[in-house]
Each structure stands twice: as C-alpha cells, then as structure tokens.
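The step that takes the researchers longest sounds almost clerical: writing a folded protein down as plain text. Below is the pair of lines this work produces for a single protein:

——
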Amino acid sequence: MKVLFIYPNTMASTLVPINLSQLSACLKEKGFEVDLFDTTFYKTEEVSSEQKRVELLQIKPFNLIDKGLELKKNNIYDDLRKKISKFQPDLIGFTLVEDTWELAKSLLSVAKDFDIPVIAGGVLVTAAPEEIISHPDIDMVCLGEGEETLIELCQKIERGEDYSNIKNIWIKKDLPAGRQGGKIVKNPLRGLQNIDALPYIDYEIWGRERLGRPMFGKIYTMIHVEIDRGCPNQCAYCAAPVLSNFFIKEGCGSYYRRKKIPRVMAELEYLAKKYRPDYINFNSETFLAKPIEELKEFAGEYKKRIHLPFWAQTRPETITEQKLEILKEMGVDSMNFGIEHGNEEFRGRVLHRYGSNEQIVRGIRLVEKYQIPYTANNIIGFPEETRDLIFDTIELNRQLNPRTINCSMFVPYRGTPLREYCLEKGYLDENAKVHNVTDGVRLKMASISYEELKGLQRTFSLYIRFPKSEWPRIKIAEKFDEEGNGIFEEYKKIYREKYF
C-alpha cells in the first residue's frame, strides 16, 4: 500500500507543516509506504511572499542557497506526472489551505489523469467541506483530524474492503465515468486523537535540507515540534477557533490539548539526534498558556536534555516575570507576540481579543527587561477599519522596541466570524480568491481603499521607527508613484542600516 502526499505551498515558504509530517509517521508505523510531492521550490508566483516581506522591511534579507535551497527550473506539472507514474501510489492525499486552493486545483487536474483515489484534508476542508467535495477531481474529504482516519482508509483499501463508512470521511459513491455525479456519503466524526499516543514526527519525507528556515538574515536547520493542538482563544479572524467550535458542535470535546512533558521531551530527543537541528520551533499558538508548574517542569527537562535555542509564540497578556525568568534560563532565543490592533474597543468588539493596551505594554516591557528579542505581529484592513484606527496600532507599537515588525493584511478565511460579517455587509464577494496575508483581499469598504492599505503596509515600520517629524515624507512614500517609490527607497536603505 503506497500513499503519495501532495503539498501545494506558497512559493519558497519554508515552514514545514506538522500535519503531513505526523500523518507520514502514522502510516509508516503501520507499514505503509509514503512519498511526497512538495511544490515549495517551484516557480508558481512571480515573487514569493517571503521576498515581499523583505521589501516591506518585515524580515532581514536572506539567501536560501546558503542551505542548498533554490527554485527548480522544471515544469511542476510534468514533475508531478513523473512522480505519480514512478511511485504508483494506491492513494493520493492533498492537504488544503485557502491560500493555495487555486494551485491545488491545477495539481488535481494532473492527478485526475490517473485512476487513483484522491482524498483531501486540512483546515479548508473542515471549514468548507461542501465546496471541496464538490470538486470533480476529489473523491473524498477528511474532516477534522486525520491520523486514525487515514490509517483505517489505507487498511481497507489494501484489503480490498468497502471504505465508504469510515468516520471523518465524506465520500462520493456510485460515480459514473468521469468521476462526476453520484451521491455523497457523509460519515459522522470520530473522537479526538490522543496526541500523546502519536508516533514521533517524520521529517524524512522532506529531506534535511528542506528544514532550512530564514530568521533574521540567517538560515537555520529548524525542527518544528507539536507541544499542543488547538488554541484556547477565540480570535474572530483566525482558523484555530473554526476547528475548536467545529468539534464542540459535533460533540467531540475540547480541541485544545497539551502533550504531557515526558512525551514532548522523548520526541525532542529523538528528533534532535536524528536531524541535528540548530534551532527549535515549538508549534504552539500560545506557548505560555499553561500552568506555571508545567512550564517549570518543561524548562528543567529541556535545559538538561536538549538546550538548543528556540522560538516561541504567545500573547502579551500571558507574560509574567516568573515565566520570563524560566524561559530565559531555558534558553529562549526569540519570541513572537500578536499585537494585531492598537485600539482597545475595536480589538475587543471586532477581533474578539480582549485586554488593555496597558497589559500589552506592561508584558512586553518585561520581555525587553530580560533582553529577549521579539517580533510584533500586526494586522491592518479589518472590516470598517479606518486610517485613524490603523494609526492607533502604529502608536501602540511605537511604545515597544521589537527586533522585527510584521504588518499583515486581513484575510477573511472561510469559516471565521469575520468572513461571515464581510459577506453580510457586502464587503466581500463569495468567490473572492485568497492568496496570503502579505497580499490580503480587496474588500469593498468605504472606510479605506485597498491601495491605501498597501501604502500603509509598506510604510508601517517607518511610521513606528522614525520620529513624527518625518511622517509627512513617509506619507508621500505610501504612494506607488515615482516620488513615493523614490522616498520609500531612501527610507528603506536607512532602516536596514539602522535596524537590520
């Protein structure tokens, strides 16, 4: 029994996904053969989102060639045909997110030329199952978690048994020639996965060189370790609550779960020995959302048994001095904080993120006290946002001193409350195509135009770093004309020399 995973990814985005790595480990543990077709280094766009972020002064310039990574010159569709023909899988699996749905559809058109069942999973499937199962080149979809589901599916295919009754799967039955028509069997969900019982993540399907990840101008060999699953928060723009609410509605229980410390440490030791990383990314939406005793235990074991530099993401309101003392001793190298918006009322009412600006500043002042470098994440372009509201976010960031500053564009992802709001208000077309958070989506709002948002995005860091006496010239740099571009280039040079 052979399974081919197809990973449609935004070009040159080197973050290695946990989901396929975990599914591969589960299948291999049961004796199945697994291979991967990864689109990351094919030229599927004119400019990668990572290079756009370099131009937006969000990340320091880097060169992936330092780790032997560069774009392929081959035709992506020819290579996919060759991969399928050579590997001859019994099942083809796509992982889908909305950012790469258009690319995935073009790859599906190649896969359909082979008489092989195709299953799709991922957050987009759970958020929009009716749309995905209706695609003529997809035979079945997996809603929610896929570890046990995929194993059961492969076992039944291998034994030649009927697999139309597997929990978590929607499947087309009685298909005529051409794979269209037929009926859709919608099976119920199974219980949530015991994440402590999962086999250790498999990065073999990617290759060690694929673990290269740029951070502050350097390329690190980085492994990503799942220490929890889900998120305890309910941000209105995020996909994590989509999954959480989905499982609660279906009676499956709480999606947010933390792995036990001994389980995490055993996996860390295994991965560190096997892949020899020089950096660890803890795959957690809110790293510090755990009891202090649990954090102490984790830190003590990590320092004793691993002691590699690591990166962690959390929310400012989870910070305490005691937690930072523990992280510092543990060896934290960098942190990432979601600021997102600087207006308290707007942030709570629209984003469902609560807490005061005072809490944010107080927490991050402690991070600066402990001299931990950090990134501040922000989003602009929310529904009904104005220029003044965006400057509230700028003003909040001016009170902080992050190493790097991210300014993403709001994206109304399927399943999120803010997408539904945008549709209700007529700000968004139902068939609007999503690319990524660097580009965002054009919303039809009277409060601010897409062009003005893009100008504010590229000057966002300049407004934060430079004195207000420079703001009149920076405002000119918002314009994508000859004068604006020229002024932006001047400031970009100064910014890189001073802050990078």
Notes: The first strand starts at residue 2 and ends at 7.
